Amino acid sequence: MTVRDVAVEAYKEALPALTASLVGGLIAGVVLGGMRAELRAVPGLLVLVPALLATRGNVYGSLGARIATALHQGLIEPRVTGGDERLRAAATAALANGVLTSTFAAVVAYFLLTFLGSRVAPLPILVGVAIVAGLLSGIVLTVVVVSVVFAGYRRGRNPDTIVGPVVTTTGDVFGILFLLIAVRTVLAVAGVF
């Protein structure tokens, strides 16, 4: 197999996922553009958006890489079973890391904006939004990553090639969607919106 053959094969595997990633990113942008009222109601939220989206990509991309490595090494089978301790531990760790990192990002954003003298929502609002969005998007991303990696592996695809674009797309689309839901939920509970 030549270098050209390897490159062509890699592009054939990755192109559909990259195309979906592009479309998903545009959809996420449209949703974010429609969140004007929420962005005004929660000052500092826009500063938090890149950190929250990056968190999804980093945490759940790492989950996909762990699962792909375990599949390649024969440590797990490409199917979901309740008794698979390694898979359950990896998914739980990713979900916990996602929520904790989102919370940390909200706290840092709050103190940074306060230090800079910028208008910022109360800390409990920012943290509440980060936790709800982190939990909801984490659950969806865990299911999607595990499903896509297993399905791709069973079909003879290299999960390392598809996990990045899938996590990016799913993280952007559901991250923004659940951010919108989280803002509305937290503000409704707080009696603000």
Automatic annotation (TrEMBL):
**Subcellular localization:** Membrane
Keyword Transmembrane among record annotations = yes
- Bilayer-crossing residues are 14-33, 89-113, 125-153
Lineage, top-rank taxon, reads Archaea
Q: Which GO terms describe its cellular component?
A: membrane
Q: List the SUPFAM superfamilies hit by this protein, alphabetically.
A: MgtE membrane domain-like
PANTHER family xrefs = DIVALENT CATION TRANSPORTER SOLUTE CARRIER FAMILY 41 (PTHR16228), SLC41A_MGTE INTEGRAL MEMBRANE DOMAIN-CONTAINING PROTEIN (PTHR16228:SF7)
Q: Which family does it belong to?
A: Belongs to the SLC41A transporter family.
Q: What is this protein called?
A: Divalent cation transporter domain-containing protein
Species, as recorded: Haloferax prahovense (strain DSM 18310 / JCM 13924 / TL6)
Lineage, please? Archaea, Methanobacteriati, Methanobacteriota, Stenosarchaea group, Halobacteria
